[in-house]
UniProtKB/TrEMBL annotation:
Coiled coil: none annotated. One of its GO terms (biological process) is positive regulation of apoptotic signaling pathway. Its main location: nucleus. This is Inhibitor of growth protein N-terminal histone-binding domain-containing protein. Residues 113-164 are annotated as: Disordered. Keywords: Chromatin regulator, Metal-binding, Nucleus, Zinc, Zinc-finger. Belongs to the ING family. SUPFAM superfamilies: FYVE/PHD zinc finger. It comes from Marmota monax. Residues 6-107 form the Inhibitor of growth protein N-terminal histone-binding domain.
Length: 245
């Protein structure tokens, strides 16, 4: 019964995931198309400027160049929005994977405790426990090889339904947040953490970090125009959270 309850609850939690993914991918395709259209517009403006530059007055040249610059800014804005949307999509899927990993780890621990308790309480349980302990010792190398794979949050597991038993009532959000992070996943920001939530790119071409979490740089919304975390003298305009740098 607990297995059926868990499966029903988990399926309910991911019921809208395909629609949300489809929506995000559609938005990314639209942003791609807008970017391509704007690049074509830039090419036309540049070709027009080159062909007529000798006949244009200084003011007309400035106005034409401003049009090209404005088109470039819009193109970059579309690209930034696409990157932001891709990050949100990744976090959306990763959240469900982490939760499933936490549930599987909790179930495995609960199952082991129950098996240990049954062996101890049964007649001759000590002999069974000893025998099983020897078997586990012989197989410990195999389990050790699986540890790194099970600790990796990006992998997907497909288990039988019976392995989800007795977990639905014991799920806590903190367990999901405490799951280990893939050591191969790149880190960003002043806090040296993986990408999550909303992030913003630094427009300084020499910035070694490039991407920052909104909260770490005291932002709540995306600022208009160019944004940089570095001052004119090369110092940080915003200090990282305590203990993060």
């Amino acid at each position: 019964m607990a297995t059926a309850m868990y499966l029903e609850h988990y399926l309910d939690s991911i019921e809208n995931l395909p629609c949300e993914l489809q929506r995000n991918f559609q938005l990314m395709r639209e942003l791609d198309q807008r970017t391509e259209d704007k690049k074509a517009e830039i090419d036309l403006l540049a070709a027009e400027y080159i062909s007529t530059v000798k006949t244009l007055s200084p003011d007309q040249r400035v106005a034409h160049l401003q049009k090209i610059q404005s088109a470039y800014s819009k193109c970059k804005e579309y690209s930034d929005d696409k990157v932001q949307l891709a990050m949100q999509t990744y976090e959306m899927v990763d959240k469900h994977i982490r939760r499933l990993d936490a549930d599987l780890a909790r179930f495995e621990a609960d199952l082991k405790d129950k098996m240990d308790g049954n062996d101890f309480d049964s007649p001759g349980g000590r002999g069974l426990k000893k025998g099983r302990g020897q078997k586990e010792k012989r197989g410990s190398r195999g389990r050790g090889r699986r540890t790194s794979e099970e600790d990796t949050p990006k992998k997907k597991k497909h288990k039988g339904g019976s392995e989800f038993a007795d977990t639905i009532l014991s799920v806590h959000p903190s367990d999901v947040l405490d799951m280990p992070v893939d050591p191969n996943e790149p880190t960003y920001c002043l806090c040296h953490q993986v990408s999550y939530g909303e992030m913003i790119g630094c427009d300084n071409p020499d910035c070694p970090i490039e991407w920052f979490h909104f909260a770490c740089v005291d932002l709540t919304t995306k600022p208009k125009g160019k944004w940089s975390v570095w001052g004119a003298a090369g110092s940080l305009l915003r200090r990282p959270p305590p203990g993060r740098l």
